[in-house]
Amino acid sequence: MTIRVNWIGSLWFGVAIFAVLIAGTFPVHGKNTGRVIISNEKSNTLTILGPDDEPERTIETCARPRGMHFSADRLKFYVGCADDSVIAIYDTATLELVGRIIDVEEPETFDLHPNGKHLFVSNEEDATATMFDVETGELLAEFETGEEPEGVLATSDGKLVFVASEAANLVHVISVEDKKVIKDILVDTRPRRFALTPDEKELWVSAELAGIVNIIDIDTLKLVDDIAFLPTGFRKEQVTPVDVLITKDGSRAYVALGRANHVAVADVASRKVVDYILVGKRAWGLALTGDEKKLYVANGLSDDITIIDTQTLKPVKSVPVDRVPYGILVDDH
To answer: Is 50 exceeded by the pLDDT of residue 15?
Structure first.
């Protein structure tokens, strides 16, 4: 990898890179460590849980870490650092900083193109989405979006990339081949995150301030349905869905309901809510284990992670982390 180091930047970058270089070689790579990696937005740290789901280590990282993603081979992972305008690159096995992509304006979330070479990044304060080469750090393309872009998701064939604009209530559709936005889809208030059904016929979009998930037909790129959420004891305005996950078999969807402090479980085929699971305060980030038996929930206002048994749909453990957990990666694939 080409390491693009800005020695004028934050001290932690320089120290970490220097430690790697004086060792004479890069860390030995590995994967399937069983660890869970959590980005903590307000404490500027990563919390590492071991295979037993107990805290193993805390890593001081960049300013305001949020979105994360594994590399294609899962030997590295990327962390978006909004207040440093960089994407930090870590070795998955050793947790050492091995590089960074610089001059990425306020990255929030991002997705790795199926070719494993390009990151598509939402730039929150810049009203753009950008495309970077993960090996060289080169900016390859820039796309205008509405204000406050967040969620980013690529189709498995690599032809389309979707970007949600929170303030404009739009889903932007990018043609990768043409390197341009080919459609803007009006959705409900404050779209945040995406999930595709396994057959990629439907795109699910959380609309935070509407308290619903919109469903977009991929063939027509039109809004076709929505699902509303309302756990018992909560008012509609308290239901603020953010993250969305759909299981590999396409049968079930999980939706983090933000200030409603629950995760909704929906049947994908019927588009009906089948259960609500009580978790911590302001549930917004979600991640499943590879076997999909455990669901991890980042609770941004209670500074903890709830672990749910997906067979019983019951929370089994709450793990304290640092301030305002945001993103979760599970290294067990």
So the answer is: no
Which among 1, 65, 8 is positioned nearest to 29, based on CA atoms? 1
Q: What is the pTM for the complete model shown?
A: 0.91
* Short-list 268, 275, 273, CA closest to 215: 268
Please answer whether residues 244 and 206 qualify as being in contact, where contact means their C-beta atoms are separated by less than 8 angstroms.
yes
263: its two tokens: 């995760």
Please count the residues of the chain: 333
Q: Residue 87: in which H helix or E strand, if any?
A: strand 86-91
Q: What's the pLDDT score for residue 30?
A: 52
Distance of CA 37 to the CA centre of its chain: 12
Q: Kindly state the tokens that stand for 2.
A: 């080409």
Q: 81: which 2 tokens? A: 């650092």
* pLDDT tens digit sequence for 177-205: 999 999 999 999 999 999 999 999 999 99
Torsion of CA 144, 149, 153, 158, to 10 degrees: 10
Among residues 333, 329, 305, 332, the alpha carbon closest in space to that of 90 is found at 329
Q: Please, what is the Cα angle at 131 between 298 and 330, to 5 degrees?
A: 30
3-state secondary structure of 16: helix
**DSSP one-letter string for 164-177:** EETTTTEEEEEETT
